[in-house]
Amino acid sequence: MARSQKSLIIVTPYVTMEGAQVLLQALAERKSKNVLLLRFVTLPQGDEYVTGFVQPEALLCLQEAGFEIRVLERLHAKIYFVDGETVFLGSANVTQTGLGAAEHSNREIMIRHTVQATEARQLVDVYWDDASLPNPALSTEYVLQVERLANEYRARTVGALREIKAQLPTRMETKVWPDDRYLGAVRMLLDKRVIHSFERASSNEFILNGKTTMKTFYSAQDPVTSKFSFDIVESTGEEIRNGKYDGVLLILGDGPVLGIPRQYFRKVLLRKYQMREDDWQFKVTKVSERWTIQIGRGKSQTLVDIHDFLWQVP
User: Do 200 and 235 form a contact (C-beta atoms < 8 A)?
Assistant: First the structure.
């Protein structure tokens, strides 16, 4: 806005006095002293004038600063059209929080786009030529009248709103987990109707159907061997051994999920790890088109079929 040379057309549904002051300050800092064609389009008189989303005093202030004011029904677009060739499209209203001038401003986005003459004409047709003059006209008397009604509205609603908000459910503190491979796999189980509900207890621990606690492990496929390698640390292996979980979910890349019951998983792995205090390392591969756990190598290798647990949970 501070770089505008010829014209500035602003289209926004919401405008407040603080936002108008930010706008006018930006225009005052223009290096060019050319006279600008200033146009402003917002919503017509309605609920927004009483609730404070559109403040008539802001419109009057802009009008006195040289803006032509028009109003347009059902307006939702936010457009800043500079010099007939550069348009900023996005989410920012002419408010203090919308323009980034408040301490805790909104998270807005505005995308810059250079338009051709035909596009420029279309923008003017739709958002300026189709708009109308404010009715009633902007004046000090009108501003005072709307301000009085807005104050009455706030006095009536603040108490009621406080009572309603007190009845809302307590907002629970939530945690954003860093790795959503686990969540994606559990959602696949939900989509396939293997489960009907889940709750996330930790990054890779889920409670399924309100009762079944599953520890979840992920592995990407080895591009050479096509196998999936898993390494369960000794402490987690001990938890599985002692029955903390009802089972484990093995996530094979972006594809299958195997839900193996605790008893079966313990029986398989304790063949090798019953007396050892180290990590549980094994691979999952396909043998004769069936998913199989592979433990060890060569003559000491153990293969255990787990294909029946494909897309299953205990």
Answer: no
